[in-house]
Amino acid sequence: MESEHENSSNHWKKEEEEILKKWGDKALFYKIMHDKAYKKTWCLSAWFNIPIIVLSTISGSINFLSGNFEQYKNIIIILSGIMNILTGLLGTISTYIGLSKKVEGHRIAFLSWDKFSRKIQIELSKPKYERINIKDFIKICTDDYDRLVEISPIIGDDIIRWMKKFIENGELEEANINSCCICLYDFCLFPCNCGGILYCLKNQKNNDENKNVFSGIEKPEILGYIQPIQIAMETKIEVEIHPESAIENEYAPYTFSRNSDN
Hints:
- The protein is 65% helix and 0% strand.
- The chain has 2 domains: 190 residues; 32 residues, no CATH class.
- It has 9 helices and no strands.
């Protein structure tokens, strides 16, 4: 039994743990951004759906009561027609830009990235001899990561700017609406009574302590943080000691310099 534990622990290498950690870190960022995008699109949807509900109700009530006001019948018909036109326009625009699909898409993406991140966190928190087979776990995480990237809705530029500002400053302070000129969602979230999550992006003090936390976290490429692809040390050493065994590929990073010298 003990030898089986030792054999199982040998399957987990540091490089594989680093890859899983990077995926888990990126998943955390995607989770936060999709959560913000969900709240934004939900409140933006309210700008369309609430007026549709109000106008439809008023229009139906006017038509129902129009028989009691014969002298205003023509005006009532005109007002009812205008309300119906506005209701149709708002509904058509909302359907065209796909607000309902975006709301549900960001909600599912938020929950899925959170589940993916927690799965990696739980597995890496275990002792190596208690973890599942690394090859199986890598395959599962690879399939899940690819699937989440494919199904996740596109994140808006304002969300990306907010996240980059969050990383640069280390934290976000609650906005003072009277003194802050540029605040996230100040137009979209106002009718939803979401003032508690308004954050000022203008007059913030840098928090070096919190900024240092982000220095060790792998960030997704969508935020503009592009990292070079790393090669395992065993591969580098093997090529340097036995250059004749290296695969001749003009695009390989360790054969390119050798070919270019010739």
